[in-house]
Every structure is written in structure tokens, then in C-alpha cells.
Amino acid sequence: MVVDEFDVAVIGGGHAGIEAALASARMGMRTVMFTLNVDTIGQMSCNPAIGGIAKGIVVREVDALGGEMGRAIDHTGIQFKMLNTRKGKAVQSPRAQADKRRYREYMKRVCEHQENLYIKQEEVVDIIVSSRNEVVGLRTKLGIEFRVKAVVVTTGTFLNGLIHIGDRTFPAGRAWEPRSEDLADFYRRMDFPLLRFKTGTPARLDARTIDFSSLEVAPGDDPPPKFSFWTEPVGSYWFERGKEQAVCWITYTTEETHRIIRENLHRTALYSGRIKGVGPRYCPSIEDKVCRFPDRKRHTVFLEPEGLDTVEIYPNGLSTSLPEEIQWEMYRSIPGLERVELIRPAYAIEYDIVPPTELFPTLETKRIRGLFHAGNFNGTTGYEEAAGQGILAGINAALRASGREPIHLRRSESYIGVMVDDLTTRGVMEPYRLFTSRSEYRLYLRQDNAVLRLAKIGHGLGLLSDEQFKLVREVEEELERWKEFYRKEKVVVPLGGGERSYSVATLFTAGYSMDDLKSMGLKTPDQPYVREEVEIQLKYEPYVERERKLNEKLRKLEEVRIPEDIDYDRVPGLTNEAREKLKRVRPLTVGQAGRIEGVTPAAVTALLVYLGKLE
């Protein structure tokens, strides 16, 4: 029985589903979000944090397009940091610890109060497709049908999810939560290939049983960086009350920890052969790290609070599928955790995905029009990657429902574009994670300029208001005025025994800062964002231009042949992953090498340099 009609339906209330549903509703589409549990909308299934290398840039891009993740973490974060501050601006990225409960409550509240968005706690078991291979509706477990014009599937780890704790297994999409089963039958019926992937999460520890006095403290930054262009410099509910940021702590595994793991490998789900799915290379379990790096005496563990009103601690770096009784022994072999109590055991989870090569760059499936995929269901890992896909899928689902042309984000304009192009062109052999090295435009695709790059798109779609876009345009105009002023303004600088006149703009490339200019008596911008952005743009200007020309040259060099007898171990600058995959695939040309999943643009450049084709 058909009971209602919607323009767009979103299946899943995780980080991808939230951004997809909000984008569609904000574009004026009558949108419905289906979730197995309304109270877990926005749940952080694993680490209590948003951001990280490249990931924080994606959050700012989602924000620039009109998404919600940046504002959510600014309002519910308890510790903020800018990562890689000792390196260049191109690889810096914000990261924040979240209060998990408040983050979830914030997202649920935003979704509940969003105009045009309706939430239903029901399991979708089938998607109805017309004879013309177009989505026309869906059916729930209770037999209710809804007419829809487009569907976005964001099932995360819930599609046929299977939990592993040692030799114990049980079906779940997240520990002790029901999984989605029947929807997999739809994909088999429509001849979609399904892959089996795996991820995991560590135990949650009782803070009252940890000896923090013996541990290294990891504080936040002062002042704390924010994620959203639209929030105040200090947006956290915690800081607004004049409190200090929360702290994290650092400890390390020991040789005893590694002994316990090695002696019990046969009891882990991964090494006993019970897990068939492929796990994430860049977020491995502790048993994976111990086996892959046998010479390492210790591995770093970050103890991260899950919130301000809970005693739960997230031990970042200690994901495992060991039996629970061995987990107790392992955790207690670590300094500071000698008497620790486990609140929730660690576990591994297997789940189904559809290979992302089944999608267009719009994230619409090639087989069925009006069907979109986003998030972990596309083979990615991470809240931020999910949000980036979610907002793009939601935008394009809304455009399809309203009869408008879809959009796609180019590699040259966003990390979301890099990720989607990687996924839909190269596919995935293991859970995908974003890194700055995946982009050949990383000097331009920085965390500081996301709003300047993407606000025009967000405004054109109706996701940013006229007032918001006007602010961005005013900032852009002020930036150009200051850049032009510094290009024309001359300054005399001591050189050797004499003096020399320089354009002020060239001083930034030479390492001068705005503070240096101020001490020299020169005018500087008052607005903090403009002040920082002018300095960054003028400092990076020649390098961004060089990057652009290099990318043009790289495209011409794609057909360079690789010698059959090349020894990849002798090629400097390759990551272990790139070296391993180049050895296995043995590509014939540099262009073919660059299309191998895991072989980054930086690896292609290193290969060209080694072959003597790039100066």
C-alpha cells in the first residue's frame, strides 16, 4: 500500500545520510530519511573526533557547500587542534575531539527541525524500479510503500553486518544494534556486484581505572581553530562557558603487549580466517601492526575522552578482534592501564559494499537512474569522507528529482572531487581513506580557502543564503585589494652592505609574515581571516602556478613507457603501498600506473623523476 510521496529518500542516518538529507531538503525537495533508530542519527560509531589530515579539509568543503558537519563539531567539540603546523599550509588540517552524545543530539535536532525533511524509524527492504530502469519507490519491512523520484543509499557498515569478537560472531550493523539484511537481496536481484569489507573499533575504557599521572598530556591549541566559516571563532558550547579545553593523553604498547597478541593470533577473527573481508590499510588493528612491523618495540596509543559527562575513554590505536578475556590482558599490559576496566569490548565488523566503479562521478549508479550511493557503502572509511560523498549525492538526487542537470566536483577544485574521482575511476581494493598525497593540486586545495573555492557552487544550488554569499564576495574583494596593494607597495630591505627595493608581495615568498610587515611600519589587514589568507596566497602564488604547469606536463607524460625490468625498490619517494601495488600490477605506462588504486600523484611524479622524464 502506497502511503506517501517524496521527491528524495535517504536510507541511513549516519554522516553521509545526514548531509544527503539536509542538502536535498534545503534545495526545496520533499525529503524523507529512513533510519533503524532515530536516537542514533549522527552517532560516532568509532573514534570521538572530526577532522584530521585531508579529512579536516573535506569538512571545510562540506561547510562551504552549505553542509552541517563543520558547524556541528564547532558547537560540540571539546578539544581543537591544527595538525601539521610544522609543515606547509597545504598539508595542515584541523581536528577536534567531540562530545559524542552532544554531537549526536545536535545532528538529530538539526534534522528534526529542517524544513522539508521528514524522519522515519523504519527498515527499507526493497527499492522499486520501473521497466525503464528508474527508481520510482521503496518498500519498508512493514510492507509500506513510498513513491520517490530518487534514493540515496548510505547504509554504512549495516548491510549484512557481522560482528567478530574472538571466536564469537553475531549479526549487527554496530555492536548490539540490528543490521540491514533484506536490502542486499535487491542488489543481488539487480546484478550489482557486492564486496565484503572489514573495519573495527577498540574497547571503551573506564577513566576511573586509568592512572593518568604517569601519562603524557596532549592538550589542544590556543586559540582553538574552528571548522565552519559561519560560526564564531570559538563556537564550542564548552568554551562559551569559559571552561578550558579537554585534554587527551599518550601512552604506548609494550613488548609484553606484543607477546600477548602474538601468542593469541590464532584466536583473533582476522588471523584465524573467520574474517573474509578486506580491512583498512591506514587504520589497522593492533594485531595487524604487531605482525606487519615486527621490529617495532612499541606503538603509540592516544587516550581520548568520549565526552564531558561520561567516564568512557577511546584508546585510539588499539582496535582488535581478540577474545574479550584476552583484550583485558592486553590492555592491562600498557602503562597507565594496569588496572583498567573495559566498559565495552573491542570488535571487528564485516559488511557488504557495492564497488564504486558502479557509479558515475555524480554518485548515481550506472545501472539504475535515480539511485545514488554514499559513504562506507562506497568502500570508504571515515566520517568526513562519508559527509563529503553524502552532500554530493544529496545534491544530485535533488537535482534529478527536480529535472535539473547534475553537478560533479573536479579534482582541481576540491578534495571531495579527488575522492569521488578516485572511487569511480580506480575503484577500491581496500577501505579508502583520503590523504593530501592523493591530490595533484594539494598546494591549491588547502583548508584555509575552501569557502573561496566552493561557496559559489553552494549558493547556486540554494544551500548558502544570499547573505552568506555576499559575505564571501566581500572577503574575496578585500583579499584582492590587499594583494594588489602589496604587489604595488615597495619596501627597502638591507642586503649585504647596501639596500634593495622589493615589492612587499615578494617578501612573503621569502619567508616574511604579516607580523614582520607590521614591525616594519607597513599596513596590514584588521580582519584575522583576510590577514592570514593574504599572506598564504601571496606566499604560495608562484608554487601554485608551478603546480599547475607541472600537472599540464604530467598529463602529456601519461603515455611514458615503464621498462619491464624496473626495480621499484630502487625508486626513491614511493610509499610502501605504491611500491607493493606497482610490483603486483607491473603497469606498462606511467598513465596506467597512475590509475592503480593507492598509487598517488606524488608516486607518479617520483616515478617520472626516476625515469628521467621530469626535471
Automatic annotation (TrEMBL):
The record's GO molecular-function terms, alphabetically, read: flavin adenine dinucleotide binding
Entry keywords, A to Z:
Cytoplasm, FAD, Flavoprotein, NAD, tRNA processing
Q: Where is it localised?
A: Cytoplasm
Q: Which residues form the signal peptide?
A: none
Q: Where are the transmembrane segments?
A: none
Question: Where is this chain primarily localised?
Answer: cytoplasm
Q: List GO terms (cellular component aspect).
A: cytosol
The biological processes this protein is annotated with in GO are: tRNA methylation; tRNA wobble uridine modification
Does the record's keyword annotation contain Metal-binding? no
Task: Spell out the SUPFAM superfamilies in the cross-references.
Answer: FAD/NAD(P)-binding domain
- Quick one: which residues bind NAD(+)? 279-293
Q: Which domain of life is it from?
A: Bacteria
Q: What range(s) does the tRNA uridine 5-carboxymethylaminomethyl modification enzyme C-terminal subdomain domain occupy? A: 538-609
Per its Swiss-Prot or TrEMBL entry, what cofactor is needed?
Answer: FAD
Q: Which residues bind FAD?
A: 12-17, 124, 180, 376
- Family of this protein: Belongs to the MnmG family.
Q: What does this protein do?
A: NAD-binding protein involved in the addition of a carboxymethylaminomethyl (cmnm) group at the wobble position (U34) of certain tRNAs, forming tRNA-cmnm(5)s(2)U34.
- Provide the assembly information: Homodimer. Heterotetramer of two MnmE and two MnmG subunits.
**Name of the protein described by the UniProt record:** tRNA uridine 5-carboxymethylaminomethyl modification enzyme MnmG
- Phylogenetic placement of the source organism: Bacteria, Pseudomonadati, Aquificota, Aquificia, Aquificales
